[in-house]
């Protein structure tokens, strides 16, 4: 201990510092209990000094702590615990009673052996750091990152997946299906006469049509299928583990559901329908873009044949 | 034991032998302490000492730990007389053995697993570094350990682009627990400025003989 510090200064600092400091002897009796520990535990020093740590605080994980303390004693070395693995040691309230969002004070713990002149460990000093703010910020950060990742994948207007995500998913599904010999189909949809809807009813009505169409498509597929907005009024549906016949059933269901009811916007009923091109993976396809190209060709024929219908790409055709 | 490259290569033979001996004795003491804490006999290998260029870190790690291995690792910072970080690398199968040793029933979840990696890493790195520091009559202080990576290929443990040093003195020891499959590696990495300190320490050690 530095001899230059005025008498009582170190004791004063140890008592008042905003870190929990306690010390136990080799029999786990509490021999130091600073103001931080007293105020958060609501147990003043005079009540706990000389008493057994684990009897006084039965909620402490005794086996774990004994191991930590023994480690510090035998190795004469620091040992540590982090809130990330063990949120807290002492069940203290925290200084966010209002803004909260967390149950108890998060704590980082350091166990420090105290050695005498002969180099023998006489006590173990335990520091309790309040890291509640760090834990709260970390939770906020993770939340933000999750939202960011999610919004990166979504189309802002319709809420279904965006083109970037569609292409990533399709590439993944294509590679998987090719490798394991699984089935895979895609549907490319284009809303019929969308330009006319925009021109007649305005862009806001057009936006509502896109939102409704996206909702109807999403309601007609399974959880494992991926629905996204591919372009202006184009949607792509990825159907893993689905052959041409199965995909045709899904496509027909979507087509019927979209045409079934008009979209209501500003008390106006807008009739809508969609043309659908269908393509199924075959051994001639080298890349996921081949699937989209075939579906696009089939979609073109569906438009050509009079719209509001499903056309499947035929291999070799 | 291989000692190579710039600074270490200008160590003379006496200095090299002394460093090897210091590390060997230190590790021996660590082994005894570990046996006491873990209740298991820990077999420590002969230390390998080398100077590594930061750009060569992925290859060096792959060579020391074994390429094509998926590993988890913790880092234990130390400072005071010597300054650096110790990295403890675990193979994928160690967790259940660790859980058993540390008095858990099983490796139940990620949090328990990480706590085990940190605890064992802290004990191993702490005991070994203290053993070495005692030979040098130096004080070493430790900061809390943290998880470096879990379940990554060994080459990806440290990214050379993210390292802001050019070379480091690396001491590698691998450890196995008798009668268990468990195997791990301890990598003590000294910062550049600590290498000069260490060379002075070696000279002092030699004079004291």
Could you characterize the architecture of this molecule?
The complex is a heterodimer of chains A (317) and B (209). Chain A has helices at residues 9-16, 35-41, 45-48, 53-56, 62-75, 132-152, 163-180, 194-201, 203-219, 244-260, 288-304, and strands at residues 20-25, 30-33, 79-81, 107-115, 121-130, 184-191, 226-229, 234-240, 263-265, 268-270, 274-280, 310-312. With 317 residues, chain A is α+β, with helices and mostly antiparallel strands. Chain A has 2 domains: 9-139, Beta-Lactamase (2-Layer Sandwich), CATH 3.30.450; 153-312, 2-Layer Sandwich (Alpha-Beta Plaits), CATH 3.30.70.270. In chain A, the strands form 3 sheets. Chain A has a 5-stranded antiparallel beta sheet. Chain A has a 5-stranded mixed beta sheet with strand order 7-8-6-11-12, sandwiched between helices. In chain A, a hairpin with a 2-residue loop joins strand 9 (263-265) and strand 10. In chain A, helix 8 (194-201) crosses helix 9. Chain A is elongated, with a radius of gyration of 34 Å. The mean pLDDT of chain A is 92. With 209 residues, chain B is an alpha+beta fold. Chain B has one domain (6-208): CheC-like (Chemotaxis protein chec), CATH 3.40.1550. Chain B has helices at residues 6-9, 13-38, 57-65, 94-101, 110-135, 192-208, and strands at residues 42-44, 48-53, 70-80, 84-91, 140-142, 146-153, 167-177, 183-190. In chain B, strands 1, 2, 3, 4, 5, 6, 7 and 8 form an 8-stranded antiparallel beta sheet that branches. In chain B, helix 2 crosses helix 5 (110-135) and helix 2 (13-38) crosses helix 6. At the A-B interface, helix 5 and strand 3 of A face helix 2 and helix 5 of B.
């Amino acid at each position: 201990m530095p001899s230059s510090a005025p008498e009582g200064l170190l004791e004063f600092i140890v008592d008042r510092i905003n870190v929990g400091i306690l010390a136990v002897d080799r029999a786990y009796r509490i021999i130091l209990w600073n103001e931080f520990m007293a105020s958060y535990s609501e147990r003043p020093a005079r009540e706990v000094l000389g008493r057994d740590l684990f009897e006084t605080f039965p909620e402490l994980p005794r086996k774990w702590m004994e191991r930590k303390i023994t480690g510090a004693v035998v190795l004469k070395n620091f040992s540590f615990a982090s809130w990330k693995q063990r949120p807290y040691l002492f069940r203290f309230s925290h200084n966010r009673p209002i803004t909260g969002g967390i149950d108890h004070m998060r704590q980082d713990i350091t166990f420090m052996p105290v050695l005498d002149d002969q180099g023998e460990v006489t006590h173990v000093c335990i520091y309790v750091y309040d890291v509640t703010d760090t834990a709260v910020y970390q939770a906020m950060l993770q939340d933000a990152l999750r939202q960011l990742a999610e919004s990166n994948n979504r189309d802002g207007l319709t809420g279904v997946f965006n083109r970037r995500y569609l292409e990533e998913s399709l590439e993944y599904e294509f590679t998987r299906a090719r490798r394991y010999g699984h089935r895979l189909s895609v549907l490319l949809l284009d809303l019929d006469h969308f330009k006319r809807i925009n021109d007649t009813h305005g862009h806001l009505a057009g936006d509502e049509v896109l939102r409704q169409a996206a909702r109807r498509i999403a309601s007609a597929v399974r959880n494992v299928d991926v629905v996204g907005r591919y372009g202006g009024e184009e949607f792509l549906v990825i159907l893993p583990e689905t052959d041409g016949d199965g995909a045709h059933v899904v496509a027909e269901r979507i087509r019927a559901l979209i045409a079934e009811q008009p979209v209501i916007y500003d008390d106006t009923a807008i009739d809508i329908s969609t043309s659908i091109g269908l393509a199924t993976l075959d051994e001639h396809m080298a890349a996921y873009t081949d699937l989209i190209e075939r579906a696009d060709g089939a979609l073109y024929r569906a438009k050509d044949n009079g719209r509001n219908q499903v056309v499947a790409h035929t291999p070799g055709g | 034991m291989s000692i190579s490259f710039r600074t270490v290569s200008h160590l003379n033979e006496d200095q090299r032998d002394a460093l090897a001996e210091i590390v060997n004795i230190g590790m021996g003491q660590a082994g005894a302490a570990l046996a006491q804490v873990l209740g298991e006999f820990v077999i420590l290998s002969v230390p390998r000492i080398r100077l590594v260029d930061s750009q060569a870190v992925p290859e060096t790690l792959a060579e020391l730990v074994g390429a094509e291995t998926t590993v988890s690792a913790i880092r234990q910072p130390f400072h005071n007389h010597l300054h650096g970080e110790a990295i403890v690398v675990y193979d994928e199968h160690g967790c259940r053995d660790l859980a058993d040793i540390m008095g858990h029933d099983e490796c139940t979840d990620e949090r328990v697993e990480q706590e085990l990696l940190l605890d064992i890493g802290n004990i191993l790195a702490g005991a070994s570094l203290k053993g070495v520091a005692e030979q040098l009559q130096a004080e070493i202080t430790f900061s809390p350990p943290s998880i470096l990576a879990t379940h990554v290929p060994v080459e990806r443990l440290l990214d050379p682009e993210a390292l802001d040093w050019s070379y480091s003195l690396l001491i590698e020891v691998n450890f196995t627990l008798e009668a268990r499959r468990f195997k791990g590696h301890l990598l003590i990495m000294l910062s550049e400025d600590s290498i000069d300190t260490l060379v002075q320490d070696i000279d002092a050690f030699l004079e004291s003989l």
